[in-house]
Amino acid sequence: MHNFITLEGIEGCGKTSQIKRLHAALQTKDIPALLTREPGGCAIADKIRSILLDPYHTHMVPTAELLLYAAARAQHVEEVIRPELEAGKVVICDRFTDATMAYQGYARGLELGTIKTLAQLACAGIEPGLTLWLDLPVEVGIKRALQRNHAQDSRAEARFDQESLLFHSRVQHGYAQLQTENPQRIKRIDADASFDQVTERILKVVAQHLELSRLNP
After folding, report:
1. pLDDT over 70 (residue 160)
2. What pLDDT shows up at residue 155?
3. Cα(39)–Cα(21) distance, integer angstroms
4. What is the pLDDT of residue 151?
5. Residues of 126-150 as b/e, b for ≥16 C-beta within 10 angstroms?
6. Max CA pair span of the chain
């Protein structure tokens, strides 16, 4: 779907802040756009999100984790993403199927074919036309994530921040592998720069994708 744009990356890569800037830039161009996230994006999926990201759920098994993500995505796609795309809006989503491949596949070690099959079932033909991968060194990202959680007291959704450095390195490797396999869709954004520089890089790629002359922050 040409107008479906997703942002991906490890914890602390800055995508949640950058996605808001992207959404604002589209609005200044009077381009109808919806900003959403995964897991979540609607009432049912948000409840599943609270289970998935609760730091006390350290005993959750990988298969249960995968199925919960798929359930949340199925609801999100049918209730929010598909209707908005069909209405002609640009939909910008903070994480989507690539995150499941990176986290539950490459990092948790679940079978990639199974994850792809579940994604096909949950998405029912909805796929991003453009994915921006914010590439940041793992050590930098985790440090930022922990600082953010402390400053914002957002530890209620910090389950993945508690994972080992090895886990996050596997996630990073997964994203790199996915980008190599899907170079036309997944565009690498060097996120190891100032906030404004990363924004400029993102807006340039999105403007090209949407065939716009320019997007201003």
Report:
1. yes
2. 57
3. 20
4. 55
5. bebbbbbbbbbebeebbebbbebbe
6. 50
| 216 in a structural domain | no
CA dist., res. 118 & res. 102, Å (int):
14
Q: Is residue 21 part of a domain?
A: yes
pLDDT tens per residue across span 202-215: 999 999 999 998 89
pTM for the whole structure? 0.93
Cα(144)–Cα(150) distance, integer angstroms = 10
Q: How many helices (H) and strands (E) does the chain have?
A: 9, 5
Establish how many alpha carbons lie within 13 A of residue 212's alpha carbon, considering only the half-sphere containing its beta carbon: 17
Q: What is the mean pLDDT of residues 145-155?
A: 61
**pLDDT tens column, 120-130:** 999 999 999 99
Nearest 5°: phi and psi at 91? -110, 125
DSSP 8-state code for residue 61: -
Q: Which of 44-53, 135-144, 165-174 has the lowest mean pLDDT?
A: 135-144
Q: Please give the tally of structural domains in the chain.
A: 1
* CATH of residue 115: 3.40.50.300
Query: Does residue 215 fall inside a structural domain?
Result: no
How far apart are alpha carbons 154 and 157 in whole angstroms? 6
Distance CA 141, CA 146 (A): 9
Q: Which residues pair with 4 in a beta bridge?
A: 91
Report residue 43 as tokens.
């009432």
Name residue 108's beta-bridge partners.
Answer: none
User: Amino acid letter at 115?
Assistant: I
> Which residues form the domain of 185?
4-209
- pLDDT surpassing 60 at residue 71: yes
Q: 217 in a domain, yes or no?
A: no
